[in-house]
Specification:
- The structure holds two protein chains of two kinds.
- By secondary structure, chain A is of the alpha/beta class.
- Chain A contains 15 helices and 14 strands.
- The N terminus of chain A is likely disordered.
- In chain B, 78% of the residues lie in helices and 2% in strands.
- In chain B, strand 1 and strand 2 form a beta hairpin.
- Classes of the chains: A alpha/beta, B mainly alpha.
């Protein structure tokens, strides 16, 4: 579904964070209250023996949206993810999952929520070493109390889904990193969760395997259409996978926007550093270099979709002497692309 | 390296100063019992008595409760504590008898539910023993089911050896006691381990207790156990449980702590309840360490088999003790092998059981599914029928298909005895010469040197070394440990224990580091050497006494050699592990810097692995201490001998415990220095 539609209806958001703080340390709560529930000076907290992990995170994730949280190590991205999965308890703020207050849940409700709605993939795979591929995948089902027979049947389906057929009885140690993460993915999807957390799932893999797994991830998501929170330190990965990206630094979300907007209009100097070297033609869609049609202009016979990535149509567009009309999903012409605009966006000054 | 030397030199100077001061004290302090600088007065000599009185009070007076006595059919006031220990004893005894009756037959279980009269009136009410053929075949089946032909062969060979050599009855007695003590230790160890993992407060409380418990010699436990629980198999089992549980606790905590946080989180995200998280995620993931714990428990149980026989545990240990006392080396050797076999078989079976997997794809019919149970049923029938037929074949009263009695089995005793005699005849003079040389030229001078140290000088040297090497905090601990010993009346005995211990640690250290270094040069050699270490460690410590008595008789030399052999194991093992932990990139960096083999060892491998080796030496000290105390069996005059005396003393509790603490404190003082230093060094080298 088009994301703009859901963004207009906050009530449909699957995850909503309101001023979430996570501060590590013994007196975290007291310190936060003492500073009026806000962290304006993280240094002061540090001197008091506390470390600010997440600083005032506010955002929503719509159903079926892929939100990527991107940041370098120590930026608080994994901490934020753990607050939302409640692997750690946020120090302050409110988190809603499907409209329910996550922080108010008791452990029984939490277990119920995780069994029904959440799945998570971990950076180091976190497979149980004593269980085979099949047993690992069936584990969340067995924990729920589903019979061995039907949980194993479901696990066999999941093995097929992630393409690990014939390795069902292998132990994690007998698999390559990529294969282990396929098991991790299959396990996280076994209970058919609505919300899918991925914590740097591909960071421990070699570049070629990483690319392959990213494709696999996109393929799965196109079939499954989960609501996704994806954590990564790799900006290129974020650009490739995200509907929206949240860039974090020192616990603060510096910018949260679509890849195109982040590349075109970095909110802070820090974000700009990431976007500087990004090949824009690979990120931007035709939409972002589109101009309104001036009446009386001679149009090319060629037509391009507004959602096409520039790189894929650049050769055709740039070799046209006339502006190329841009169409939307309904085949209506909504604007045009001029080669000069394309060239300016791609190769012009970035400052 | 120059950098380190620069840092070391002030410490070296300090140490030289310390030595000079030590020397001066040794020279100037008069050896006079009245002189406090020579020997401290035994200010805490009353401690054993105090312990005895408290124990007596606890056992016989504290918290009387009324208990129904069925004999006199009246309520009677009895002290609470005694009732508790009584019930524990009764429960354990019942379990041991139950298992024993399965293997050996008997009436005690029946009696427990009825009465002696009932059994006398009804001769049929007696549990017949399982014929050895059935037990052996059953064990083989179990081995096959768990792991396959290899384990089945090993299990079968072990049990057939035991049966054919006529050791069936004592072996089954020992087994029955291990089968009760080991699971209890494992469960207790797991429970405490989990508790300590969950609560840091519990962990900090348990840690020092575990440290002490692991160094206090086995014998010291026996006296209090005897007082609280009496004498018999149950007392042996309790002593065993007390000794076997600490390593299990320690390894459980270690294992649980090593579980990666992500695995824990993955369990939580899979929706585990805290119970499921513990038993389906944490414990299975930590099973490597936990299984080492189980292995340790089994080893400790069998090591205790001999020691527990001091307080009335029946079985192989008791027989071994008798054989040793009668210097029947061949007999002792055969029985020792039985203990080792039981240890190895139990260890492998439990390991295989823990690693067992399920096959989800097999679609089995009834016969297939219950294949092993059905087979066992068949074996049972065949065995019983054979045993029945046996009563007709063997008319002289010994049914070999039922049980082979101890004097009717094979025996190689004559052979070993002849061997011993031959060695004595052939090498008498060289052995004796070596023995005399060692004792008069090395051991005696060393012993008198230790004894001629004034207490002030010893304290200064030990505490000063601790301060220079590890700083003030450790020095205070060490001072406390040593002062405690100095204030008891056994300072001289402790010096003798320390002398044998240090002599053997030096020899073991040299041998262990040399052998370990050589073995670590080649992966195959390293692996074989580790395997040898594993095998040797499987032997209960008592076994080491057999061959040395064979060669050197009952002398200090025997003790020393037994201690050296036993204590060399950890030194070797840790040296290999330490050298192997040196990253290969450092080797490459060294090679590219043009070092030769010796330089590489001296300048790269040794400094990098030294913290590891130091921990190995620490273990060597612990091993050596425990063996020195066991050496009391063949006549030493150190702390061990006094602990042994306390065992036969009705009021020995206090003495036994305080002596045990003395031994433990020697170990702990050394442990404190070596461990602190090794940890700091590891941190400095970036290894921790």
């Amino acid at each position: 579904m088009p994301e703009d539609a859901t963004a207009n209806h906050p009530s449909e958001s699957v995850i909503r964070c309101e001023s979430v703080y996570k501060i590590f340390g013994d007196n975290a709560k007291k310190l936060l209250e003492a500073s009026d529930g806000q962290v304006t000076d993280p240094k002061a907290f540090q001197e008091a023996g506390c470390i600010v992990g997440v600083n005032n995170a506010c955002f929503e994730v719509a159903e079926g949206e892929k939100l990527v949280i991107m940041g370098l190590s120590g930026s608080g991205k994994s901490t934020l993810l753990r607050c939302i999965s409640r692997l750690t308890d946020a120090t302050a703020g409110r988190i809603f999952v499907d409209g329910e207050d996550l922080l108010a849940m008791n452990s029984k409700q939490l277990i119920e929520l995780r069994r029904e709605k959440m799945g998570m993939v971990f950076q180091s795979f976190a497979l149980l070493p004593h269980k085979t591929v099949l047993e690992n995948i069936a584990f969340p089902l067995q924990v729920k109390g589903i019979s061995t027979k039907s949980s194993i049947e479901k696990a066999i389906d999941m093995v097929r889904l992630v393409g690990l057929d014939s390795r069902e009885n292998y132990f994690p140690r007998e698999l390559s990193g990529g294969q282990q993460q396929r098991v991790g993915i299959a396990r996280s999807l076994a209970v058919e969760p609505d919300i899918w957390f991925l914590d740097e799932p591909f960071s421990a893999l070699d570049p070629l395997i990483r690319k392959e797994m990213q494709d696999e991830f996109l393929r799965l998501q196109s079939v499954l259409n989960k609501t996704i929170l994806f954590v990564t330190h790799d900006f290129d990965e974020a650009l490739r996978l995200a509907d929206r990206i949240a860039i974090m630094k020192d616990g603060v979300i510096e910018q949260l926007d679509t890849p195109a907007n982040i590349v075109l209009d970095p909110a802070t100097e820090y974000v700009r550093k990431f976007t500087q070297d990004v090949p824009r033609e690979k990120v931007l869609k035709i939409e972002s270099v589109m101009d309104p049609i001036e009446p009386g202009t001679q149009m090319s016979d060629l037509k391009v979709s507004k959602d096409a990535i520039i790189e894929t149509v650049a050769e055709a567009v740039l070799s046209e002497p006339r502006p190329v009309p841009v169409i939307n999903d309904q085949n209506d012409v909504v604007g045009c692309v001029k080669p000069s605009h394309v060239i300016h966006t791609l190769f012009g000054s970035r400052h | 390296m120059g950098h380190t030397n620069f840092h070391l030199s002030p410490k070296v100077l300090q140490f030289l100063g310390l030595l000079a001061a030590f020397w001066a004290l040794c020279v100037f302090i008069e050896p006079d019992e009245e002189n406090w600088l020579w020997r401290l007065p035994s200010l805490i000599a009353g401690l054993p008595l105090l312990i005895n009185n408290s124990v007596d009070y606890l056992m016989y007076e504290w918290m009387p409760i009324s208990v129904w006595d069925p004999e006199i059919e009246e309520y009677e006031d009895k002290p609470l504590f005694k009732e508790i220990t009584r019930s524990i004893s009764a429960g354990l005894l019942f379990l041991i008898h139950l298992v024993r009756e399965v293997f050996l037959g008997g009436t005690k279980t029946i009696v427990a539910f009825t009465s002696w009269d009932f059994v006398t009136e009804n001769p049929w009410a007696q549990v017949p023993a399982l014929p050895w053929t059935v037990v052996t075949a059953g064990a083989i089946l179990l081995g096959y089911k768990l792991k396959g032909a290899g384990l089945a062969t090993m299990t079968g060979a072990g049990l057939i050896y035991i049966a054919l050599f006529g050791q069936w009855e004592p072996s089954m007695e020992t087994l029955s006691f291990v089968l009760i003590a080991a699971p209890i230790s494992v469960v207790l160890g797991l429970a405490f381990g989990i508790w300590a993992y969950k609560s840091p407060a519990v962990e900090t409380t348990l840690q020092p207790l575990l440290n002490v418990a692991q160094i206090v010699p086995h014998f010291s436990y026996l006296v209090p156990v005897m007082v609280f629980f009496g004498i018999g198999d149950h007392a042996g089992a309790i002593a065993t449980i007390i000794f076997a549980t600490p390593p299990m606790v320690r390894l459980t905590v270690l294992g649980l702590k090593n579980v990666s946080p992500e695995v824990l989180e993955s369990g939580m995200m899979s929706g585990c309840s805290s119970f499921q998280l513990l038993f389906k995620v944490l414990i299975p993931t930590a099973r490597r360490d936990i299984l080492i714990g189980v292995n340790q428990v089994i080893m400790q149980c069998l090591a205790m088999a001999v020691i527990a026989s001091f307080i009335g545990a029946k079985g192989l240990g008791y027989n071994l003790l008798l054989a040793l006392n009668g210097l029947r080396i061949g007999k002792a050797l055969e029985q020792g092998i039985c203990i080792v076999l039981i240890a190895v078989v139990l260890d492998r079976l439990s390991l295989a059981w823990a690693n067992k997997q399920t096959d989800y794809f097999a679609d089995l019919n009834f016969m297939r599914r219950y294949k092993y149970s059905l087979l066992f049923g068949l074996v049972f029938l065949v065995g019983v029928v054979l045993a029945y037929l046996g009563t007709f074949c063997f008319r002289d009263g010994f049914n070999y298909l039922y049980m082979i009695p101890h004097n009717k089995g094979f025996t190689t005793e004559q052979f070993w005895q002849a061997g011993v005699d031959w060695i004595w005849d052939t090498f008498f003079f060289s052995l004796k010469a070596f023995n005399v040389f060692l004792i008069t030229q090395i051991l005696m001078p060393m012993k008198s040197a230790y004894l001629s140290m004034p207490v002030a000088a010893t304290l200064l040297l030990v505490v000063g070394t601790a301060y220079i090497v590890t700083g003030l905090r450790s020095a205070i601990f060490v001072a406390g440990f040593v002062l405690f010993i100095a204030l008891t009346e056994w300072w001289d005995r402790a010096l003798i224990t320390t002398y044998i211990m240090s002599a053997s640690v030096i020899i073991s250290g040299i041998i262990g580091i040399t052998v370990g270094t050589l073995a670590a040069q080649h992966p195959v050699a390293a692996r074989s050497m580790l395997l040898i270490c594993d095998t040797f460690q499987t032997f209960p410590s008592f076994i080491y006494l057999i061959p040395v008595i064979m060669l050197f008789g009952v002398t200090d030399t025997s003790v020393l050699i037994a201690v050296v052999v036993y204590a060399t194991i950890p030194a070797t093992r840790y040296t290999i592990a330490g050298l192997q932990s040196v990253p290969p990139s450092l080797h490459d960096a060294g090679s590219m810097s043009g070092v030769n083999r010796i330089q590489r060892w001296l300048k790269i491998e040794l400094p990098m692995s030294f913290p590891h080796i130091a921990l190995g030496i620490n273990q060597t000290v612990v091993f050596a201490l425990s063996m020195v105390i066991i050496g009391a069996m063949i006549g030493t005059d150190d702390l061990g001998q006094f602990i042994l005396k306390a065992l036969s003393d009705k009021n020995g509790t206090g003495n036994g415990l305080v002596l045990g603490l003395c031994v433990a404190f020697i170990g702990l003082a050394i442990d404190q220095v070596l461990r602190t230093w090794a940890n700091e060094r590891k941190k400095a080298l970036g290894l921790a």
